[in-house]
């Protein structure tokens, strides 16, 4: 039995906005109320705020290899999509590149306090070893000690091939498992077309069938500018009308982006039980809009937070995007308080993944946690340490990160891999 006790924190954010002081105790990777601490490993959290590990509900890890590419900024989404696609073709997306990009993106995630990443993988070249690509991402996560939700996406893929590949991936990565989550909770598989702007009803239908057969979560992207434009052009309907008609609004579905939604659509989304992922670190710099998070949450939707990929948001720093979410919220309604946005970046994201055991520090939750040192000059004078966690010290990184009771970041450095080697291998592969 492995017992860990984290002591002396300035504040412990439990989840659901509850803040307390005192110990955080875990036994064999699970948070408990109390335990026999005789042989416990003690961790000193003096000067730190302790939170649950952050959950990045929307990333495209492959794009970690394609950050700040010339010709991909300041252009409309219609031009951005083919510009990115040309870069993928030039680099040749295969298991090696998928693994190296995932390794860099997941290492960055852990160093930023993100313990779970949902990787919506959308690039599947014709004839590619798709199981090999998924396995490469899963192996990278396992080696680093990060939790991964691998989403078998599609973007103009042949519908039959996409579905056959999704089925093969879940059988290979989670053999004999129904429900899409490994027994240790470290790996999850889900499915998700890129959106109605790129994929046909047949792709949604067939990936939906794979999800039903294996009990997987479904995800897609909806209502960025181009999504609405193309849906109106092609079908004479808005994306959410199509998703509703195609059976893709339900409690097992999460929609990323949702920049441009009407009040009527928000009411229908809430009634369907669908959840949402806000990704301001992508939507704002790309000019796609700002999701009306306050109205979504007031309507009863679970809203999580995601960074989206390196092709639009060049960082996978979810806490920085939580800060941005607060800043821009005031442009589309009442400002979101820090505690609420932190809840979105933890429990809200976890709920959208169907993982209520993540993103919280309540008894029974996974022992995924971050120690954020708030004792430095950038936090001096802060009255509310939880608000300060998000508002003060932009770009803040945690001192210690624990996943399932295991320390994966110590004193701000990875314990599970050589950071320099991760960087060098990715540069070598993309020849930059
Ligand atoms: Zn996205």
TrEMBL record:
InterPro entries: Amidohydro-rel (IPR006680), Metal-dep_hydrolase_composite (IPR011059), Metal_Hydrolase (IPR032466), MTA/SAH_deaminase (IPR050287). The keyword Hydrolase applies. It comes from Microbacterium enclense. It comes from the Bacteria. One of its GO terms (molecular function) is hydrolase activity, acting on carbon-nitrogen (but not peptide) bonds. The keyword Aminoacyl-tRNA synthetase does not apply. Keywords: Hydrolase. The lineage of its organism: Bacteria, Bacillati, Actinomycetota, Actinomycetes, Micrococcales. Residues 49-408 form the Amidohydrolase-related domain. This is Cytosine/adenosine deaminase.
């Amino acid at each position: 039995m492995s017992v860990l006790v984290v002591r002396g924190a300035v504040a412990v954010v439990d989840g659901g906005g509850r803040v307390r002081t005192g110990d955080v105790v875990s036994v064999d990777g699970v948070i408990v109320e109390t335990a026999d601490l005789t042989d416990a490993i003690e961790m000193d959290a003096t000067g730190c705020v302790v939170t649950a590990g952050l959950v990045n509900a929307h990333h495209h890890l492959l794009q970690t290899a394609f950050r700040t590419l010339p010709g991909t900024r300041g252009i409309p989404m219609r031009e951005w999509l083919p510009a990115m696609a040309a870069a993928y073709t030039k680099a040749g997306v295969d298991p090696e590149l998928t693994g190296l990009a995932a390794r860099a993106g997941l290492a960055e995630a852990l160093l930023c306090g993100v313990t779970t990443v949902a990787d919506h993988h959308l690039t599947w070249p014709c004839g590619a070893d798709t199981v090999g690509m998924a396995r490469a991402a899963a192996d990278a996560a396992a080696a680093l000690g990060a939790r991964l939700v691998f989403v078998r996406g599609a973007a103009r893929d042949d519908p039959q091939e996409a579905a056959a590949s999704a089925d093969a991936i879940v059988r290979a990565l989670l053999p004999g498992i129904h429900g899409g989550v490994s027994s240790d909770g470290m790996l999850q598989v889900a499915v998700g077309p890129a959106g109605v702007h790129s994929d046909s009803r047949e792709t949604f239908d067939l990936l939906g069938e794979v999800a039903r057969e294996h009990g997987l979560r479904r995800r897609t992207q909806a209502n960025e500018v181009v999504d609405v434009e193309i849906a109106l052009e092609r079908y004479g309907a808005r994306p959410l009308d199509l998703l509703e008609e195609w059976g893709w609004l339900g409690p097992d579905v999460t929609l990323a982006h949702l920049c441009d939604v009407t009040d009527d659509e928000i009411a229908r989304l809430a009634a369907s039980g669908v959840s949402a992922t806000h990704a301001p670190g992508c939507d704002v710099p790309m000019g796609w809009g700002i999701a009306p998070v306050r109205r979504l949450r007031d309507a009863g939707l679970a809203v999580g937070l995601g960074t989206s990929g390196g092709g639009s948001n060049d960082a996978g720093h979810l806490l920085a995007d939580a800060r941005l979410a607060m800043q821009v919220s005031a442009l589309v309604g009442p400002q979101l308080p820090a505690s609420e946005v932190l809840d979105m970046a933890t429990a809200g994201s976890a709920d959208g993944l169907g993982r209520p055991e993540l993103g919280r520090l309540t008894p029974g939750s996974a022992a995924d946690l971050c120690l954020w040192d708030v004792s430095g000059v950038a936090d001096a004078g802060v009255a509310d340490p939880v608000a300060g966690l998000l508002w003060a010290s932009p770009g803040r990184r945690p001192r210690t990160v624990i996943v399932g009771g295991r320390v994966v970041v110590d004193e701000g450095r990875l314990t599970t891999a050589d950071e320099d080697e991760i960087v060098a291998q990715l540069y070598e592969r993309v020849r930059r």
